[in-house]
Specification:
By secondary structure, this protein is of the alpha/beta class. Among the domains are: about 200 residues, Rossmann fold; about 160 residues, P-loop containing nucleotide triphosphate hydrolases (Rossmann fold), CATH 3.40.50. The chain contains 18 helices and 13 strands. The chain starts with 5 loop residues before the first helix and ends in a 105-residue tail after the last helix. InterPro entries: DEAD/DEAH_box_helicase_dom, Helicase_ATP-bd, Helicase_C-like, P-loop_NTPase, RNA-helicase_DEAD-box_CS.
Length: about 575
């Protein structure tokens, strides 16, 4: 390992030129999408005109893949009999390995994890060895524990051949083992923002060596309110880093984050920019009343359990519903287990293992499992409760049909969900699915009411009898702390794909050699700290919010020396009121 002499000696030995043309006129991407059949629509928008630059990868056995992925990565790929990359991998690998900042927009289950992990392994192996006290070279930020653990499993599997060490940092687990891994030194760190901030504040790790930053599921992290933590973390990373952002949707909040953190980035869109579901999923919507759902669920499970492949995830809206439904189903003999955010990390891991290995083929879950849960052979997803927005619906059903496979999603849709009817119809139409006429009627009635008030004889329609407050949408939505505003991802215009100048710090892919060494291309990061003399902003008491901390976000509180605290004064007995006269 690392007998290549590092960047200084190998430089462009993999056939790359000095990176994409940074002038931005004809050699940059103009926000165009790429089709999903693995072919390239580069045309005049080619990135990198010279050398052996690979525009896209069609097959893992071809010559182009051997140019960009080294032997220790190919060995793992060959052992798994993996022949064809997914479209996002075919387009993403060459860009990531060229050193270019990039944004990848693709649906769930499209192979995004390996799209950034394999280039990360190549990147790390071209860097100097870690020394004592160094932090990770590659940092992956993920929104949930489940997603972080999933990425860690892939990183361990593919990094083992080149002896790369990785660790997973997330809340809800003991800090001791995580601190021990960081102190021993790891090249790859997969972390949730909250726990990483804790360790940075405590001085357990640092980001001075980090040159490869990945923001996975960026839209989900913003939904969960992690933006101030993300900005604080990115402030600690050297500005000549390579940054990759991955998301399933492209709302304006994610676009703003990309403009702030990425420099002259390339955007890859697999599929549509607006909200879209995996076309390999058969979507079936049953319009019914709340009281009918449980009987319909039992009949549906009786059919599913007769199938040979019968792993099923049932999504519910609340933790209480999850516990109640799990208890009733287990009482009736169904092999079901439940998972939600209030369960301990140990119990969550145990439940997921029981589900993955088929001991309990029915998993009842809240949205804690709607992202990051990657079980290859999930064939069915049932939305027992429809979520508060169609974006969560997309991610729920995305737990099936992973890695180009097929799956089926059943949804119970009630009059209480009428607010989401038109959005769901749009999702079904985009995926060329058959639409329940009752759902169409519900969407039309909802549209008529929104335009024309209460709408005539609405009260007389039996289908919508009962409650008309739509299930207390405002009250139910706040349970998970997400923004309950209107769904902003629908109808996102294609002009959103443009890229701006990104950072204004003056780093435009140029080399940072100040000690007489040879120039580095965009895919070559110099040794730290001799070349860039970059010193990250330190975690100091009372430090004001930095340039990237955003507006309106107070600075984080950091530990400082405290004077010995005085013992509190003794408690004074409380004077009892006089006894009430008899």
């Amino acid at each position: 390992r690392r007998d290549f002499g590092g960047f200084r000696d190998r430089g462009n030995g993999r056939g790359f030129d000095n990176g994409p043309n940074k002038t931005g006129s004809t050699n940059g991407f103009s926000g165009a999408s790429f089709n999903t059949n693995g072919q390239s629509n580069f045309g005049a928008n080619q990135v990198g005109a010279g050398g052996g630059y690979v525009k896209y990868v069609q097959r893992l056995s071809g010559a182009e893949i051997k140019i960009i992925l080294l032997a220790y990565v190919m060995d793992v790929i060959n052992k798994q009999n993996w022949t064809d990359p997914t479209p996002i991998q075919a387009q993403g690998w060459p860009l990531a390995l060229s050193g270019q900042d990039m944004v990848g927009i693709a649906q769930t289950g499209s192979g995004k994890t390996l799209s950034y992990l394999l280039p990360a392994i190549v990147h790390i192996n071209h860097q100097p060895f870690l020394e004592r006290g160094d932090g990770p070279i590659c940092l992956v930020l993920a929104p949930t524990r489940e997603l972080a653990q999933q990425v860690q499993q892939v990183a361990a599997e593919y990094g083992r051949a080149s002896r790369l060490k990785s660790t997973c940092i997330y809340g809800g687990a003991p800090k001791g083992p995580q601190i021990r891994d960081l102190e021993r030194g790891v090249e790859i760190c997969i972390a949730t923002p909250g726990r990483l901030i804790d360790f940075l504040e405590a001085g357990k790790t640092n980001l001075r060596r980090c040159t490869y930053l990945v923001l996975d599921e960026a839209d989900r992290m913003l939904d969960m309110g992690f933006e101030p933590q993300i900005r604080k973390i990115v402030d600690q990373i050297r500005p000549d880093r390579q940054t990759l952002m991955w998301s399933a949707t492209w709302p304006k909040e994610v676009r703003q984050l990309a403009e702030d953190f990425l420099k002259e980035y390339v955007q890859i869109n697999i599929g549509a920019l607006q909200l879209s579901a995996n076309h390999n999923i058969l979507q079936i919507v049953d319009v019914c009343n709340d009281g009918e759902k449980e009987n319909k669920l039992i009949r549906l499970l009786e059919e599913i359990m007769s199938e040979k492949e019968n792993k099923t995830i049932i999504f519910v809206e609340t933790k209480r519903r999850c516990d109640d439904l799990t208890r009733r189903m287990r009482r009736d003999g169904w092999p079901a287990m439940g998972i939600h955010g209030d369960k301990s990390q140990q119990e969550r891991d145990w439940v997921l293992n029981e589900f993955k290995y088929g001991k309990a083929p029915i998993l009842i879950a809240t949205d804690v499992a709607s992202r990051g849960l990657d079980v290859e052979d999930v064939k069915f997803v049932i939305n027992f409760d429809y979520p508060n927005n169609s974006e969560d619906y997309i991610h729920r059903i995305g737990r099936t049909a992973r890695s180009q496979k097929t799956g089926t999603a059943y949804t119970f849709f009630t009059p209480n969900n009428m607010r989401q009817a038109s959005d769901l119809v749009s999702v079904l139409r985009e995926a060329n699915q058959a639409i329940n006429p009752k759902l169409l009627q519900m969407a039309e009635d909802r549209g008529g009411r929104s335009r024309g008030g209460r709408g005539g004889d609405y009260r007389d329609r039996d289908r919508f009898s009962g409650r008309r407050d739509f299930g207390g949408f405002r009250d139910r939505g706040n349970g998970r702390g997400f923004d309950n505003g209107p769904n902003k991802t629908f109808g996102t215009n294609s002009q959103n794909g443009g890229f701006g100048s990104g950072s204004t710090n003056g780093f435009s892919g140029a080399s940072f050699n100040t000690n007489g060494q040879s120039n580095f291309g965009a895919n070559q990061v110099g040794a730290f700290p001799g070349q860039t003399n970059f010193q990250p902003q330190q975690f100091l008491p009372g430090k004001p919010a930095g340039a990237q901390n955003g507006t309106g976000h107070p600075p984080f509180q950091f530990p400082q020396a405290q004077a010995p605290q005085q013992h509190p004064p003794p408690l004074v007995p409380y004077t009892m009121p006089p006894q009430f006269p008899q």
